[in-house]
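Slide 14.
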Amino acid sequence: MLRELTSLAEMFFKEAKAWLAASLFFAVMLPIAFVFGFSYIVRGPAIYYLISGMMVFDVAVTGMLVVPNSIGWDREDGRLSLMISMGVPLWAYALTSTLVNNLFAIGSGLLVLGVAVAMRYLAVSLSGLAMLTLALLASSFQGSMVGLLIASRIRNLRVLQQVTQIVAFGFSFFAPVYFPLSVVPRYLLPLAMLEPTTYAAQAIRLSLRGSPASLVWDLGTVVYGAVIAAIVGRLGLKA
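Slide 15: predicted structure.
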């Protein structure tokens, strides 16, 4: 299985050359533009929500978008059937398929932080940076599993692409990502806790503040992703 995953990862890295320019733009230039543009509107404590929200959009949403599309195209090409017949775990396949994108996304998230710190909008301790790295990795895993769940239920490629766009952007702007969880009305709180980006956003924002509570949200983020992985493993992924 390890050999198959290694070969699959090498293949995705080679394919990444085709969209390298676009990836570099969205990973480097777009975050810098966001920080420069919106930082003049958002100042003070609210800057933490802006920066953490951008990181959630970069990292967690990447998996929700890339994994379903990768699986959709692999399903069309017949490569998915080959992976399933080799006994590759679905969660491992999903993480491998989005490995390149997740590396770009995590790098982009750290770049956002670097620009914000350089412009003195916020300061992050070394312990906070370590917790942030854990939060980004946990968010990447969770987003990939959400994407895997979507791909497991929708086989039509065109429908899959539309649904992933709606879900990804919905979880970005209709969840407590750019605003505090505390302002969510009590009757909507259960719904907010069902949204995966809620966990990723709290973990990332608290890590920026150097709060150990970030680790609790990290755990929740990983558990959320693991539960989804178990559900998909139970339901299966049709080739």
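Speaker note: The mean pLDDT is 81.
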